Amino acid sequence: MKKEILLLALSCLCSVMAVAQNEESLLPDTVSNATVRLDEVVVTGTRVPVPRDVIPAPVSVVHRHTIERSEETALLPVLMQQVPGLFVTSRGMAGYGVSGGSAGGINMRGFAGGSGQVLVLIDGHPQYTTIYGHPVADAYTASDAERVEVSRGAASILYGASAMGGAINIITRRATEDGNKLSARVMGGSYGTQRYSLTDTYRSGRFSGVVSANYERTDGHRPNSEFDSWTGFAKLGYELSEAWNITGNVNIAKSKAEVPGMVDNPLLDGTTDVLRGMAGLSVENNYGKTRGAVNFYYNWGDHVINDGYYAGGTPRPYLFNSTDYMGGVNIYQSVNLFEGNTLTGGFDVKLYGGNAYRNPETEIYADHVKLNEVAGYLLAQQQFGKLMLEAGVRLENNQLYGTEWVPQAGMSFKAAERTSLKFSFSKGFRSPNIRELYMNFFPGGPSNPDLLPERSFSYDFTVSQGLLGDRMSMELTLYYIEGDNMIAVVPVDGMRKNMNTGRFANKGVELGMNYRLLHNLAVNANYSYLNMENVITGAPRNKLYAGVVWSPGKFTLSAGAQVIDELYLVTGDTPLTTNYTLIDARVAYRPLKWLEVFVKGDNLLGKQYETMAGYPMPGAVVMGGLSVHL
C-alpha cells in the first residue's frame, strides 16, 4: 500500500514537472475552478473576510464548482476527497444514519466528530444533536453550499465547545446575478439509486433569494439497507442600505433508513426516522473600517429509532425517541483602529437541551434537560510590513462546570511575493454532552454530572507557495496536538463510569497542491499523514487523493484516485486495520448551453473494502443523468 501511495504521488509530481517545462503553452484560464488561490478571502478563522495566506491557522476551501461537479446529494463525500486529514466513515450506497451501526463519523487529525470533537457550522452557527453532541451527517446537503471552509486545528476561540479538533463551516448559497436562474438535476443508477435536485435563485434590486429541494433514495447494496431522504432550503436577503443588510434562512432534512447490522450478524427490523431543522436570521453591517453582525439561530431534531433484533430474538416493544434543540445569538464587530490593525470582539449565548425515552412511563433517559453557555472573545491582528501577528482570548462560562479560558496566538510572514510562512497556537475544548452527563441505559450506568471539558492544544507550522503566475499553489502543514481530561468509560468501585481521564498526543503532515496545467486542464492533490499516540477508529494513518479535470470543447472529463492506508476498523487488544484504493471518473457532454448529460462511476475497480468493521461497501457503482440550467 505504501508503494501505491508513493507511485501515485510521484506520477502527479511528474505530470506537473513535465508541463511546467512549457509555460508558453498555457492559455487564458477556463478551468480556474480547479485552482485555489493563496490570496482568496475566507471568514472562518476570523469572522470577517481576511486573505487566506494571512491567517496563521491552516484553512482549506472547497468551492461551489467542485461540489457541483461531484453530483453528490450529501456534502461530506466531497469534503473527504478535497480536505487533507479529513475522513468520513460510510456503510452503503447512500445515507449515514444515527444510533447503533451509524456511519458519518467525521474524523480530523485524530479527533472524532462522533464524539463531538469536530464542529460543523452553517453560516457560522453550530450544528449538532445536543443530546449526543455529534453532527448528523445526513443533514448537510451539497446543493445548499456556496463553499465550505475547513479550519484544520482547534477553533474554539471563535466557536467555543466542540471545535477542539477543527471546524467545518458550510457557507450557504446566495443569488449573485440579477434575474431568475433555475437549475435541475435528475440521475439514477446502481442498486435502484435515484437523485433529484431543483434550485432556483432570484435577484432584483436589493432583494435576493435561493430555494432548493432534494430527494434521494436507494434500495441499498445489502438486504435491509434501503434509504430515502428529503431536504429543503430557502434563503432570503434584503439590502436595507449600502451599509446594512438582513438575511434569513431555513433548512429541513428528513431521512428514513433501514439498518442492516454487521454482515456476519444481520439486524432485523432496524430503522431510523430522523428530522433535522435549522433556522437563522442575520443582520450585518459594513462601514469599511468597521463591520459586524448580529446572528440568531435555532436548530432542532426529532429522532425515532427501532434498534431491531437479531435472529432468534423478538421485536422491540418500544421505540427509542429523542428530541433536542439549540438556540442562541452571536454578536461580533470588527474595527480597524489604525493602519494594519483589526480588532474583533464578540459575544455568544447558547441555550440547548433535549429529552430521550423508550417507554415514556418507565424508561426515561433524559427528562427535558436544559443547559446554557455564555461567552465573550477578543481577537487582535496587527500587520507590520510583511509580518502579521495575531492574539486573542475567549472566556466561556457553562452553567455546570464554570469558566473556561481559551487563548490563541499566531503569526504569518510573507517571505516572498508568493511565499508565506505561518505559525499558530490554539486551545480547543469540548463540553460533556447530555448523554455523558445524565443518561443511563442500564442501572448504575456510566453517567456522571461532575464531568469537566476535554481540552486540546494545537501547534501548526504552515508554508504556502504560489508558482507559475499563480497557476500553481502548494501548501505544507506540520502539526502537533496534545490533549488531556479526555472522557472515557472506566471501572469505578466495580461499576463502569464516565470519567475525565487520560491524555493523548497526535502529530502529522498535511500537503495540498492545485495546478492549472493548460487553459482546459487542471490537477489537484492532497496528502495527510497522522501519527496517533492513542489510536481511534475511522482515522487513517495515510490518506492521499489526486484528481484531474479536462474540458475539451463541449466535454468535461474528470477522474480521481483515493488511497487509504492503515485505517483502524477495530482498536484494543486485537486491532484490525485495512487499506484500499478507490478510482472514480465522470464524463459530461454539453450539447446546448443550458443542458448537460453525464455519467459517473465510483470504485471502478470494484474494490472490496470497509470503513466500519462488518459493514462492507458496494463494489463498482455507475450513475447517469442530466442537468438543466435556465
Descriptive account of the structure:
Helices cover 7% and strands 57% of the residues. The longest helix has 19 residues, at 2-20. It has one domain: Maltoporin, Chain A (Beta Barrel). The chain is globular and about 70 Å long. The chain contains five helices and 36 strands. It starts with a helix and ends with a strand. It is mainly beta and 630 residues long. β24 and β25 form a beta hairpin.
Topology:
Layout: H1 2-20, E1 41-42, E2 50-51, E3 59-63, H2 64-69, H3 76-82, E4 86-88, E5 106-108, E6 111-112, E7 119-122, E8 125-126, E9 145-152, H4 156-159, E10 166-172, E11 179-189, E12 193-204, E13 207-218, E14 227-239, E15 244-258, E16 261-262, E17 265-266, E18 271-286, E19 290-306, E20 320-335, E21 341-357, E22 364-384, E23 387-398, E24 402-416, E25 419-430, H5 434-438, E26 454-467, E27 472-484, E28 487-492, E29 495-500, E30 503-518, E31 521-532, E32 542-550, E33 555-570, E34 576-592, E35 595-602, E36 621-629
Parallel strand pairs: 7-10
Antiparallel strand pairs: 1-2, 3-9, 4-5, 5-6, 7-8, 9-10, 11-12, 11-36, 12-13, 13-14, 14-15, 15-18, 16-17, 18-19, 19-20, 20-21, 21-22, 22-23, 23-24, 24-25, 25-26, 26-27, 27-30, 28-29, 30-31, 31-32, 32-33, 33-34, 34-35, 35-36
The fraction of residues assigned to DSSP E strands is over 45%
Q: Structural class given helices, strands, pairing?
A: mainly beta
pLDDT < 50 runs, ≥5 residues: 3-36
Q: Compute the gyration radius: what is it?
A: 24 Å
In CATH, the topology is named Maltoporin, Chain A
